[in-house]
């Protein structure tokens, strides 16, 4: 059976519609992904702002200007140069020994 003009027209029409449907589906998925990415970026920005605020609060709360009056109210004396030494903080979980 030989294909006639109307058969070719139908074939190309179906091929075009299938391709168009694939493109529309892909574009829709891209838009959804872009929206999700925007939401995640906003969330990251908010979390960074919260982190900065918390770090500022920690630095403020651990400053000498805040700690010395609290220490004196609790009955402690202010350390001299020789008594004031920083303590190392072990950041490894479980207190495992550090590798050198």
Provide keyphrases for this structure.
single chain, 100 residues, mainly alpha, 2 helices, 67% helix
Sequence of secondary-structure elements:
HH
Outline type: rod-shaped
Alpha carbon gyration radius: 34 Å
Which range does the strand content fall in?
A: under 5%
Quickly count the helices: 2
Helix share bin: 55-70%
Mean pLDDT level: 87
The main β sheet shows up as: none
CA-CA gap between termini: 82 Å
Uncertain spans: none
- What is the SS-derived class? mainly alpha
Strands, total number = 0
Structure explained in plain terms:
There is one protein chain. This protein is mostly helical. It contains 2 helices and no strands. The radius of gyration is 34 Å and the shape is rod-shaped.
Give the arrangement of secondary structure elements:
Elements (H helix, E strand, L loop, with lengths): L4 H57 L2 H10 L27
Summarize this entry quickly:
The protein is mainly α.
């Amino acid at each position: 059976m030989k294909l006639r003009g109307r058969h070719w027209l139908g074939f190309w029409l179906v091929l075009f519609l299938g391709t168009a449907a694939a493109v529309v589906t892909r574009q829709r998925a891209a838009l959804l992904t872009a929206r999700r990415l925007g939401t995640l970026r906003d969330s990251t920005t908010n979390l960074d702002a919260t982190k900065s605020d918390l770090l500022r609060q920690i630095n403020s709360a651990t400053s000498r200007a805040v700690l010395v009056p609290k220490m004196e109210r609790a009955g402690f004396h202010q350390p001299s140069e020789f008594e004031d030494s920083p303590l190392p903080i072990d950041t490894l979980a479980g207190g495992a020994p550090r590798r050198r």
